[in-house]
Fold this sequence. Notes:
This protein is α/β, with parallel strands linked by helices. It contains 19 helices and 13 strands. The protein has helices at about 10-25, 45-55, 70-85, 100-105, 115-120, 125-130, 155-160, 170-180, 190-205, 225-240, 255-260, 275-285, 290-295, 330-340, 340-350, 365-370, 375-380, 390-400, 415-425; strands at about 35-40, 60-65, 90-95, 135, 135-140, 140-145, 150-155, 185, 210, 220, 265-270, 295-300, 315-320. The strands form 4 sheets. The chain has a 5-stranded mixed sheet with strand order 2-1-3-13-6, sandwiched between helices. Strand 1, helix 2 and strand 2 (about 60-65) form a beta-alpha-beta unit.
Amino acid sequence: MSNRRRRGLGGGAAALVLASSLAACGSDDGGPPTLTWYTNPDAGGQAEIASRCTDAAEGRYQIETAVLPRDAAGQREQLIRRLAAEDSSIDIMSLDPPFIPEFAEAGFLAPVPEDLAERVTEDVVQSAIEGSTWNDELVAVPFWANTQVLWYRASVAEAAGLDMSQPVTWDQIIAAAQDQDVLIGAQGARAESLTVWFNALIESAGGHIIEENSDDPEDITLGLESDAGRRAVEVMRAVADSGQVSAAFSTENEDASATGFESERGGFQVNYPFVYARGLGAVEAGSLEQSVVDDYAAAVYPRVDEDTPAAPPYGGINLGIGAFSENVDFAYEAAECIVSEENQAFYFVNDGNPASKASVFDDPEVLEEFPQAPVIRESLELAAPRPQTPYYSEVSGGIQREYHAPGSVDPDSTPQTATEFITAVLAGDQLL
Length: 432
């Protein structure tokens, strides 16, 4: 495997200053305008797509990229501050889906033209459409869609007698891990990854973190105290108490889960598709045996209950067009180019980020690089977004506080205390 999928780091503030200067010089000399695309850090794929779409524009405009901070909260903060000041230099934004309702509700996103909305949602997995929608309207353009799958060592599952050709439950995973004395990887850190895990559990149990949404935070009704909410807590606690998680489970993030999976005790983990590329990279670097990666296999996310399909996490990046851009029409034309089937396939292979278009998963080069592509597509079709609300930061922050550490949650008390706390935060009576 080449190094092309290895992820790079971005340089926030300096890149943003550069972007402002680039945008300012757009058409002062009568030349074509420069569109600034604010991107999340990656391995260079978005910059390459910007170059491709600049060429496709044939001189009518050019696209420059400016890299935002690495973490999603930092990306949100940078963009919110600029958009609140009606910054016209923001033409295109790579947005984390949970923040899209907040941007839309604040009037920071230019309306998506109706004809373009039809084109950019054609053949797109449903979870990506839902993640780009607010108040029943498409407000962003689906770009790439991420999801977690159940990674497992095929030899471990076979030795435990676990039939992976059928959907499996968390209870079965725990039993198999105990039988073989291997690790279960999940993200127990007090971070956004904990909200991702809990949301997947409650959605898989048939419930929702938010049962009734509202533009008024005091009218939001939470679903944490439902049967599904309590069942999600039971599973979270069962995993934490299984004896098969790492000693640092309460601080475990996605990279730590992948590290445990690569170890001699690797058995099962829920994690993103990057796990496979990371394993191949470790083989190339000489730090992992090829036989270990050859034992990797993937299945759809575990079920909470045997008869209820799983609702895996949904993530990724969608494109928002700045409401204060002086080149909205060009920006939407550029966005349509960015999310073309060809560019999504390139981005999948180059950066390891799955496409939102279902047809891309049949691309021969994608299948060669990612044998798990059909499982990823199936997972995306089942995936459920995190709560869509302009107050997502408050809700997620409350989840992270009240459901951490996973080994301390209690189905008889945590849902109630979490509901009381988050409700108070939404009402302005408590601080996170």
